[in-house]
Write a structure and sequence with these properties.
Shape: elongated
Strand content: over 45%
Largest sheet: 7 strands, mixed
Order of helices and strands: EEEEEEEEEEE
Number of helices: 0
Number of strands: 11
Helix content: under 10%
Length: 120
């Protein structure tokens, strides 16, 4: 299973960005999908996750500003980020818990990351 993120970039404080992550490969089913981020010198942290039936969970820092959604038909997860702050600057990683055809278990997959920089 491969995950490819897109949508990162440079944005001014208060601005918005929409990240996308498309999964491809020998996919039987994708369970939970999520977004994590890692700022320089810091550990990777959860931003938001969404289950296959649409239940969501957000980090406190993301609540009220970020919205996670997914299109199961396209194996794609999105992160709409509004009211961005300089402290949101980080590499954002897509994560998927997925089962491949022929397997009876799921595995964790990660994208390569996309840089989000919030600066004036």
């Amino acid at each position: 299973v491969q995950l490819v993120e897109s949508g990162g970039g440079l944005v001014q404080p208060g601005g918005s960005l929409r990240l996308s992550c498309a999964a491809s490969g020998n996919i039987f089913r994708i369970w939970t999908m999520g977004w994590y981020r890692q700022a320089p010198g810091q550990q990777r942290e959860l931003v938001a996750v969404i289950s296959s039936d649409g239940n969501t969970n957000y980090a406190d820092s993301a609540k009220g500003r970020f919205t996670i959604s997914r299109d199961n038909a396209k194996n794609t997860v999105y992160l709409q980020m509004n009211s961005l702050k300089p402290e949101d600057t980080a590499v954002y990683y897509c994560n998927a818990d997925a089962t491949e055809y022929g397997d009876s278990w799921s595995e964790d997959y990660w994208g390569q990351g996309t840089q989000v920089t919030v600066s004036s």
